[in-house]
Amino acid sequence: MAFTGEKDEPFLFPSTDDQRDPPKFFSSDLLSSPLPTHSFFHNFVEADGNNPVYIHPYLIKSSASSVSLCYPSRRADYRYIYQVFKADLTISTSTQQTQQGSHSHPHVISSFTDLSVTLDTPSDLTFFLVRGSPYVTFSVSHHTSLISIATVHKFSSFTSNDTFTKYTLKLDNDQTWLLYASLPIKFSYSNDIVSFSKAITSAGNDGGGVPLVVRIALLPNSSSQLEHVLDRYSTCYPVSGDASFTKLYCVEYKWEKRGFGDLLMLAHPLHLQLLSKDKGNITVLEDLKYRSIDGNLVGVVGDSWSLKADHIPVTWHSIRGVNQRFLDEIKSALSKDVAALGSLGITTNEAYYDGRIIAKAARLALIAEEVGFVDVIPAVKEFLHEMIQQWLDGTSMEKIDPAWGMKYKPKAYSLMANFMNLGRESNSKYTRLRCFDLYKLHSWTTYLSNHCDDVGMQQNSTSEANHCDDVGIQQDSTSEAVNIYYSAALMGLAYGDIHLASIGSTLASLEIHAAKMWWHVKEGDNLYGDYFAEENKLVGSLLANHRLCKMRNCYTEREIKIGLHVLPLLPITEFLFSNVDFVKDLVKSTPSEYNEGDTWMGFVYALEGIYNNQVALKKIRSLKDFDAGNTMSNLLWWIHSRHDYRKMGSCHEKQCCFCRYSC
Length: 663
Known about the structure:
alpha+beta, Beta-galactosidase, Chain A, domain 5, 3 domains, 28 strands
């Protein structure tokens, strides 16, 4: 386990025997290690394994004995954005097994890494699916003699170079695809299917048993200039990719490559924002762009990248301190809120609700410590003892009761390692970074969903019948994701574990960057288009292939969406919402009046306090009810620790509260 900080064996909670059949889509040699539960390739291993997987910039669908590629188009209105799957190219072979049609399932995952998955098909094709590669690369067994490529469109032309190692396929939907082969291949055309076979060389052989490697890439805008770029880098291909945390607030990408020449990959907008060019080992090709639901993907040459995130201070208290003139008001609220804890009970079957109650109480203890009102801390400590004994969440308890924290330290670390394990070893007890996506740089939630019916997305034509197949990992509450890693960093501080504090704060910072990039909708940035941006300041649910206005339980009320993206209100919240211009637009999009019983408006007023402190304070003082994870004390602590952003100096610049931290 990566973070125990002890020489003793790590604590493990009791295990249970899973009586279900072993996962059928993973190769047998992978089953001895913990398998990922929130992977980007989840649709390859869920149900029948035939839902499309978005591997930037293509949607990949495996079914029967074929694999289909799609360079997706986009549909959007004010409720949703989605990428349409159409089988632009479908690749299959003519092996004996394929002809017999005897397959138990369409594919097997033979390996996976942070940035890639290797897919073996029953027809002796091995696909090296590496995220961000402009080429789809696969190897063909020497047993396979014929490769077939079909399309839902029509082929308008196909030509080859003189050596039969490059083919240009043009479709009647104005797409141009380039096919590169490591050995000469020849084609035939029949019934709208292009078939390729290994060419017999002058030496009288077809490669001597050497596997054929084929790379296929869409040519953006059918540009001849970009074709030269794809030609140049077609000879070097990645087979896997890993991410590592080598320095504080840094992530390093490294790809394993084969062939010869330099490696060409694609960077999404957040990559480009964080990409370090200091070492001079990469070159950005700004003219090579592929469209994506996540923004334009831009060419980058280099087999290793360094991504540098912003520094965020990990602190128990407010960043700049509480205004001393209002300490009495906060203490008065603390007295009432701590007294009210006695009326709250534990419901052992609702972890999410109970977690908010626990977090609320822990915040009261920390606020009391910051404002010097220690008299109420014993009552909070007693309440937390009773509440979290069964949940064993030792973070804030270690802060206010070190003896209790040390007693349950092994169990607290075991809970943390369930989602924070960095190890890749086969004997690891937990999968690596269970929820965090090291390519997108944000987490996915723990449940699967198909939201098509929620937003009325009707399948109105056969050609778009697959656009609702995005059943898989999703994410809605960015603040919850930020705070799970922020809490891990605080846990590291409480136990003196600098490594845990470093990794936790790095992941929290990356979550903040991703939230600002893909959940905070800003008009004019052209990421989501005018229809969606005009009606939505926050993305409700984000899936790999969809953006939805609604979120959990079909919430559409804007104050609820804000609350779920703010909760819990902590010191790190000001970094998540540091763009003041965006915050102003977000607050203005919500109801202006508070309705009795509307517990979510407190979070709206908290954001208003970032730029309009006095008006927000008046509204907060008028509140009668609060969300289960919030209190009057917390809101007053927040509002009285704000400072006029217009007087913060050049370091603030409306975008971030601290200067960029250099690794």
